[in-house]
């Protein structure tokens, strides 16, 4: 069949001419992104002129102007103009235009950026029913990705179950499996993730490096390290070569478990496979070494990191400095900070906050203030975290008035103090005995009405002998619906017992224990307060009953507990014999409940008191400590130390 060449040329020229005019027109009228919201922009000027969408000549499935609609969808989607995007879709549906899948994928991404997951799911549902466009796996993956990025893992799993498993309208590909395995791992359903992984070959999908990496990360987070290691071996047998992400998942899992020996072997394997460690690898290892207290190794690893041309970042330095501060080596942390600054790397506010806190805790307030001034000189603007650290440190140094001045400066800098700042200030005034000033802070700031602040005020009042006011605050706390924590209970109980009101203290204790689901459980401090009160009042048998209840509730006695009873027994007939029998009884009782640590602590108390345990007491504790699995654990730790060293 021959077609007239002149006719074809004429039609082509018409199409090119019309399309050029349309594109030119839209390049002028498409509005730029403005700060106003979509509704305001809609009221100002409709972005699409109706006259330009006159029906054009039809060629097969398409008509003149379709490409213009597609261009509009692309432009509005990129600009985030969702109102105009919906207008184009409605206009196309009204004119019965042909929709292509790419239109919807662009719309999904635009709605995803605007965090409108419901719109994405709704549009996906309407693709076939309203727009007569059959979705493929590309559309499904795009929707899944948007929903996952917004953290809606349950919805993502429901979508996968409905479309892929139940309806079976779409055949999944590797990306689909990667997404669903990620969802299952995020939800802690690792066994189901493994099932999906094993299902892939039957669907003619070959797992890629992302599949393996995601599943290994999920296994490591569930502390199933050995399975993750096996998966790494399987991956390489199948011809899929691991990348840095794969190794990092395994290294992170091993470091969190404290198995630095195996982590170092994985790094060696990484080099053998030609995979160069990145900053995540080094940061993970440095963090693991800092947690284990191996700071020298962490510093040398930092040097190795730099020599391998891997640039340390804020996480690297923050981790290292934080590790040094935790070991009471803030001075060394400050030296690293200075070397960081000399290399042209600017540390963030949190690094300075860590150092300031460390110096205060080490009793070096002058150095803490020097770091503060150094931070200001470097041009860093202090945030709430830094101010909070400084206020807390000054209050620990018994300088609450200076801390209050700093809060005033903080407000002038436009940094709003939070409840933690005011709690530190109140505690500082209570510790210096200036109760009235602490109460002024309490009364003048509404943000301090939470459980922690109430506990600080109650503790401060009771510690300063103002029990009645403490009880009033306690009642106010309960009336407002706040739940007391263990500190609040201990403080009130201490106040009552100090004033000879032991029975009231016991009633309060029973109320605390009766509050199921409150998350508040009596600790050894609370028990010791009551035990001391009962023993002072001569109620030794009731104190022993309470001690039994303490052990049954899973709370181990400590040195204070032992001293309370030993002092009481000493005042009776034969304190050495009675004291020895009492402590022996505690050891045996704890051993029967398989609480080895508690039993060993009592043995230590006995040795401190020059009370020699009997042979059978030594025997049962040593047998428990030296059980095969514990010995194996000790040997593994030794080997681990050897590897790391």
Ordered list of secondary-structure elements with their pairings:
Elements: H1 5-29, H2 38-44, E1 58-59, E2 62-63, H3 66-79, H4 82-94, H5 101-113, H6 117-129, H7 137-149, H8 153-167, H9 174-186, H10 190-199, H11 209-221, H12 225-237, H13 244-257, H14 260-272, H15 279-291, H16 295-307, H17 314-326, H18 330-342, H19 349-361, H20 365-377, H21 384-396, H22 400-412, H23 419-431, H24 435-444, H25 451-463, H26 467-479, H27 486-498, H28 502-514, H29 524-536, H30 540-552, H31 559-570, H32 575-592, H33 596-608, H34 615-625, H35 628-644
Antiparallel strand pairs: 1-2
Helix pairs in contact: 1-3, 3-4, 3-5, 5-6, 5-7, 6-7, 7-8, 7-9, 8-9, 9-10, 9-11, 10-11, 11-12, 11-13, 12-13, 13-14, 13-15, 14-15, 14-35, 15-16, 15-17, 16-17, 17-18, 17-19, 18-19, 19-20, 19-21, 21-22, 21-23, 22-23, 23-24, 23-25, 24-25, 25-26, 25-27, 26-27, 27-28, 27-29, 28-29, 29-30, ...
